[in-house]
Structure to design on (179 residues):
């Protein structure tokens, strides 16, 4: 893996495809046990989570549904965008076990604003599964139930994550190069 340029920024290799896939396999194995017989709904938050969701869901062997929704826009390298209401939630979540699938938790703002809306529809349970957990950046009280990686508060791209819309289409994750 070599450095990766997206627009004006340089990124260095951070998590390899093998590291990512190993953690996803582990998570799938755990969810297959914990949610057996519950027919959970995997609620994937677009756009960043699409690759993570696909790789995770293809390893889910129990009966389960997947639903993709869109919540927020994200501009630049810090989480400033205002949260937009959920678009595309066309499945009833009432009485269902929900697993939210997020690419990354940064400040927690996005999910903090969305969770009460989801809870209002009275699902049986809501759990949060994330690929990347920027633990130091958390500013809103959000409980992450499953995290593949705890990462430092540095901007990352690749494997679904973008910098101004670009850089999503890699198998690895890259970290912003220190200047
Ligand atoms: P939060 O609301 O601050 O937790 O931000 C969550 C959203 O911000 C994620 O779903 C991402 O779309 C975006 N985000 C946060 N950190 C990064 C990053 O390092 N790279 C790319 N996107 C990020
Ligand atoms: Mg996202």
């Amino acid at each position: 893996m070599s450095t990766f340029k997206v627009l004006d920024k340089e990124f260095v290799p951070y998590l390899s495809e093998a590291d990512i896939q190993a953690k996803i396999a582990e998570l799938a194995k755990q969810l297959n046990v914990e949610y057996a017989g519950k027919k959970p709904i995997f609620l994937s938050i677009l756009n960043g989570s699409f690759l993570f969701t696909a790789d995770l869901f293809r390893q889910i062997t129990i009966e389960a549904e997947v639903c993709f929704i869109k919540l927020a826009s994200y501009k630049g390298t810090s989480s400033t965008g205002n949260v937009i209401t959920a678009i595309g939630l066309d499945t009833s979540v009432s009485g269902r076990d929900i697993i939210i699938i997020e690419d990354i938790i940064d400040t927690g703002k996005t999910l903090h604003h969305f969770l009460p809306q989801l809870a209002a529809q009275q699902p049986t349970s809501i759990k949060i599964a994330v690929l990347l957990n920027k633990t130091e950046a958390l500013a809103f009280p959000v409980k992450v139930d499953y995290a593949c990686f705890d990462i430092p508060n540095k901007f990352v791209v690749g494997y679904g994550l973008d910098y101004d819309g670009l850089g999503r289409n890699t198998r690895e994750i890259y970290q912003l190069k220190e200047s």
Observations:
- Strands lie at 4-6, 9-15, 41-46, 65-72, 83-87, 97-105, 125-133, 146-150, 156-157, 173-176.
- The chain has one domain: 17-152.
- The radius of gyration is 16 Å.
